[in-house]
Amino acid sequence: MKVLNLSIALLLICSSLLTAQEINANLEAYISEPKTKQFSLDYEKNEAESSKLRDSWIAPLNLQYSYSKSNPYESVQTNEYAAIKMDQPIFQSGGIYYGIKFAEASRVYANYSVDVAKRKLVKDAVSLLMQIKQTDLKVERQHLQIKNSEINLELKKEQYLNGQLDSGFLDNAVIEKNTVTQALYDIETNKEKLISKFQAISDMPYASAAIPQLEILNEEEFLKYNIVLNLSQSEIEKSRYSKNVTIAKYLPKISLTAGYNWSKSNQQYTPTSPSISTERDYYDYGVKASMPIDINTYRDVESSRIDFLKSKVVVIDKKRELSALFEQVMQNIKNLEKKKSLSVQNKELYQKLLDDTKELFQAGYKTSYDVDILENSVIIQDLDVKIYEIDKQLELLTLYEMYKHEI
Hints:
CATH class of the largest domain: Mainly Alpha
Number of domains: 2
Radius of gyration: 38 Å
Largest sheet: 4 strands, antiparallel
CATH topology of the largest domain: Outer membrane efflux proteins (OEP)
């Protein structure tokens, strides 16, 4: 039985992880095709740049050809020359190996840089869509508040005309109605701005697009698959191999040299005299050893060593920063859950008052205005719960911006 329970627990954990991974993968569908294509081309460029850097130790073959014609001392001379030369390093005190490793580390670092930029845009798109959906709820909520203010204004009018209130209370009711109405206009204006920004980076129709339901991440998983932290960690490897390449640059280097040369010359003293032509070709090969003596050797090596040490410190600092961010998001979510709980309690209270008021209305002790206000208040609390839930999703989106776990 214990084995069975353990298997079920592991299955539930795997299912939870798979859900988070699926959500993570689907987030990138929210950015437009042209922007997705741009990021795809960035990855391709990183691959090309890495390959170019990896093979940079392979020296090119130098092809040469020249032709010249001259007439010194009334004689016509033509000269042709062609050559193929090679100067290929075969030993650089480890520089070739570290250069290849540096190229690979640079590719990984560059890809993480693209990941970070891409996820930033994904986060912007999803955040804008969430805010649009949340604004729809706020518009609905504001309409209910306007209805309540209109009912309150009607009640104040009747009380004023019946001599139960002075004009100051009536003025306050008018001001309240105008205030909530103007707030609605501000909400609608903000919604149009959000729509404009969303349409600039996404192909999805905002009206029918569904927002993702993000799952809670644990801190260990958040840090393990954090692309911002991975970017900093990849810089350690990049700086490590860069330091080694810099050191090797000032150590002995051995190169293999080889070449093939061909030359031909023609000389004709007069138009009627025969021309004298000479042609020859030859090859050469050998080995060359070299080692630079540079006054800035120590400074150059020390600078690269400091870059490497700094990259290690940056990772430690970045990990602390991300842990603090995770804790802050979790705390914000706890506070939002408290607000949701309060709205649920308020809804239950208003619902109880509404039920009692309906009975009193049937008995003639309450007006339809009282019933309408409480019905609107119940719906408002329900909308508040949904608004807070989207706030929670926006908080989680802060984490998902940096979380990337491929399925």
